[in-house]
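We modelled each protein-ligand pair independently. The example shown here corresponds to the guanosine-5'-triphosphate entry; the chain sequence is given first, followed by the ligand as SMILES.
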Amino acid sequence: MPRDEDPLSRVLAPPPNETTDDRDARLLAEAEAKRISDAIDEELQQQHKAEKKGARPIKILLLGQSESGKSTTLKNFQLIHSQKAFRTERASWRAVVLLNVVRSIRVILEAIADVQALHNASPSASPMLQSRTLPGSRPSSSPSSPTSPADDVPRLTADHLKLRMRLLPLLQVEEVLIRKLTPPGSIEYEATSLTQITNIPTSLKEKEVVVNSQFAWKGLFNRFTNRENGDAESINWDDPDDPGKIIHACGEDMIHLWADPTVQKVLEYQKIRLQDLPGFFLDCLDRITTPKYIPTDDDILRARLKTLGVSEYRFQVKEAAWAPFFDDMNAILFLAPISCFDQVLAEDPMVNRLEDSVLLWKSIVSNPLLSRTSLVLFLNKTDILKAKLAAGIHFGHYIVSYGNRPNDYESTSSYLKKKFNQIHKEHSPETRPFYCHFTTVTDTKATSLILADVQDTIVRRQLQDSKLVA
Ligand SMILES: Nc1nc2c(ncn2[C@@H]2O[C@H](COP(=O)(O)OP(=O)(O)OP(=O)(O)O)[C@@H](O)[C@H]2O)c(=O)[nH]1
Ligand SMILES: [Mg+2]
């Protein structure tokens, strides 16, 4: 092929009728491109050198279905290793807590409206009206018989309806917060705004607010702060757009709403247990609705914001000299929320959440590419499991293979541990140890001990693998 027909030379050759100015500009651009390319090479070389010296971090990949506790576990790691960074994000988490509160209130308001509609409808038509199931809540069989629909339906008074009207401004707060968390142009925004276009009221039934794990959403909330560090003094309390203002104004009403026995009956009737759902803060409204509320570490751990993308944690091994012996991906921390035995997937109401977790575990365990990766299993949300069993929800009712064994925490938890262990034993391509912990990752104290142990285990296992220790 003649030289001038070579596609590469053609692209690289200067344009045939180039002016002197064009030529200067081209040379300048080429020099700049070379400078950037050299800088990248330099950085890669530095990285390579650092890695050779043993500065390569250990990587832990966090896996598990949605709401299993991956982000919460990351927050625990952060709280242990970079407390300062964790605390500077308080202003951003404040917004998430407020969003969670408003969401819970919205669920209650919708439940009230549904029950009201049931009373207003004619008896023959009413059973159809309350077939609502929240993702995450128990699939409800129709609680009333078709012949007497309104008999056992809680009766609301005019005061309840007034209370509901007074709380409606909170829905605006929700919109403001969602808009802030998901700027236009991001996929997440499209997903959330769809409901506004179609005019269907947003609710738990629809999409959750999502942030990408790579996206620095916390930066969006600098507005609420005067200085870089988001500590208590740095929140701009005079910002007229601060959602805390309406939350404070509605504080008393929210507290009354949640404490109201009839409202509690309405929720019970609809089989909604808000206290078991993520982002539950209604039990501490008096604190959260104060004008200058700042979330505690605990609040931040309990705040719920869905993440899109990979959750990964990196840490530096203390004995840096060992580090070069570690593989690229060192461990997988798998979270199975064992409290979800009575829930279905948000994306597919036909699938039980616990079953989904078990299947996911099986696919990870049996993956030949991961046969030499350390797997650590967290059977998480043990506190919610205990609460559900105590509230009389029957494990065996949903997990049929459990039969009629005792409906207590000891039996159910050890049954589940055995199940996960059995899968691990039968489906691992090579034998490997089964590391399993019962966790409540919202409990930072207990979790910090477990995470220290996990890090130890991973490092030890890797060293054993590299035959560096016996
Ligand atoms: N009570 C209780 N709540 C928990 C526990 N673990 C996580 N949560 C809460 O459950 C919610 C979901 O946890 P996340 O860490 O956001 O779950 P995730 O796995 O990151 O979920 P995605 O981002 O959707 O994939 C949050 O509100 C947490 O505070 C637990 O052990 N007990
Ligand atoms: Mg997450």
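The two ends are 62 Å apart (CA to CA).
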